[in-house]
Design goal:
It contains ten helices and 18 strands. The protein has 416 residues and is of the alpha+beta class. Helix 2 links the parallel strand 2 and strand 3. The chain binds flavin-adenine dinucleotide.
Length: 416
């Protein structure tokens, strides 16, 4: 009998278990991660060198901490390589939904933090001069499925109350402004797009230049005392750190448990480069307000990416089995949505996709292990939330905690 295909949730899952096919990103030169010759000591050990670990390493090294960044495979080639990298501040759960779960003040705070995170990420990239095809973009949040014109109007009203700028577009304004036939939309400034692999490798390189040690190693054992964390690597070496940050993406060690976390499956395609005159106005990032949604962006080399149609399962065999059908459905969706696009597909890929029930990330100390922190920026705002995680964890390690940090705690109650 054939063995069961691996489950994305397993802590042993490799990059190959988490994503299939290839996205159109530059396979930028990854800085060298050296095999350790001896056991190491540091202020902070970061496990995982995707976009999350790289952001944390850059920030902590800028704060003057002695950092070790560890990855057991090629850095930035995990889920980060599959990301469509829409750097959005709008959260997968609408402000209306999040208000229903946590009340207006807390929901509005999450939205404002997310907006500030995208702004902060943009400033960081520009300040460091990272070549990662960063482009500021507006977003177009479209009525779709169960989310019709009245739901869009309610969302817009609540965003205004929260001080979040945007424009409500009714059917006519949407059609005249964007040539899109949907009952309504919200157009908002303040988001961006990037090449996630170039961004992640660039950040790791900056951290390395500041003295962070980039280490090739498989973190297998995690032990903690009042004074330190001890990480046992598969090769027998040990890392002793004052603090540890887990940035292992969609695979978590078994002592990290969250009632809100689930891993699902997602698919995406990218076209061949289009004639730029065939692309939509301002190349806004487009996404649908329905629960199961589609999204579109363009790339620096004029491709169109369309993704979505997520399914609740994480099983890789099932994901692969569905790939041809899902990719064909995305292509058909593109042709209906934007008939001017040339439909030849150059890249098709799929992957595991970590989500939480409330659309918010898991950031903060691992319960019962105060020197261990988790940085899991899940959902369609994964990268935005990873930036937020880097700042929150930097502050927490420095002893600078804030009451709102609890909004993202790993052991926060399940909503409702
Ligand atoms: C198809 C798709 C589309 C997406 N679109 C968007 C989007 O438009 N916008 C957005 O913001 N987000 C998006 N996301 C989400 C975003 O890509 C992720 O949140 C982000 O890439 C996760 O990065 P990470 O660094 O946390 O994880 P990863 O990139 O998976 O990195 C984790 C690293 O940890 C290493 N690791 C794991 N365990 C160990 C261990 N024990 N020892 C050593 N190393 C270990 C792995 O080897 C890996 O390199 C998308 C995701 C997918 C799959």
């Amino acid at each position: 009998m054939a063995p069961d295909p691996p489950q994305a949730e397993s802590a042993r899952s490799t990059h190959d278990d988490l994503r299939e096919g290839r996205a159109p990103w530059t396979h930028a030169c990854v800085p060298r991660f050296g095999v350790p010759r001896e056991s190491l000591r540091c202020d902070v050990a970061i496990v995982g060198a995707g976009i999350t670990g790289s952001l944390v390493a850059e920030h902590l090294s800028a704060r003057g901490m002695d950092v070790v960044l560890i990855d057991r495979e090629q850095a930035s080639h995990g889920s980060t390589a599959a990301s469509t990298a829409m750097l959005q501040w709008e959260i997968d759960r609408s402000l209306v939904e999040l208000t229903g779960l946590y009340g207006f003040e807390r929901a509005a705070r999450a939205y404002r933090l997310s907006l500030a995170a995208v702004g902060g990420l943009g400033e960081l990239i520009c300040g460091l001069g990272l070549a990662c095809a960063l482009q500021p973009r507006s977003t177009l949040y479209l009525a779709a499925g169960e989310a019709g014109a009245s739901e869009i109007a309610r969302e817009f009203a609540l965003r205004r109350r929260a001080g979040l700028a945007g424009h409500h577009l009714d059917f006519d304004r949407l059609r005249h402004g964007f040539e899109i036939d949907r009952p309504a939309a919200i157009l908002s400034a303040g988001s961006a797009e990037a090449d996630p692999m170039a961004l992640s490798t660039g950040l790791a390189e900056v951290a390395g230049r500041r003295g962070a040690r980039l280490v090739a190693g498989d973190a297998r054992d995690f032990d903690h005392t009042d004074r330190a964390v001890h990480i046992g690597l598969a090769d027998g070496h040990e890392i002793e750190a004052k603090h540890m940050v887990l940035a292992t993406g969609y695979v978590m060690p078994d002592f990290v448990v969250s009632a809100l976390h689930k891993v699902t499956s997602t698919w995406a395609i990218a076209t061949r480069p289009q004639d730029p005159s065939r692309l939509w106005r301002d190349r806004v990032l487009i996404w649908e307000a329905s629960k199961v949604y589609h999204y579109l962006r363009t790339t620096a080399d004029d491709r169109i990416i369309i993704g979505g149609g997520d399914e609740a399962y994480s099983d890789q065999g099932q994901r692969l089995g569905e790939a041809a059908r899902k990719h064909a459905a995305l292509r058909a969706m593109l042709q209906t949505f934007w008939p001017r696009a040339r439909g030849d597909i150059a890249f098709a890929w799929s992957g595991a996709f970590g989500q939480t029930e409330d659309g918010l990330p898991l950031i903060g100390p691992v319960p019962g292990r105060r020197r261990m922190f988790a940085a899991y920026g899940y959902g369609g705002n994964g990268i935005t939330f990873s930036f937020l995680a880097s700042r929150m964890i930097g502050a927490m390690i420095a002893g600078d905690t804030a009451p709102w940090h609890a909004d993202f705690a790993l052991d926060r109650d399940k909503p409702g």
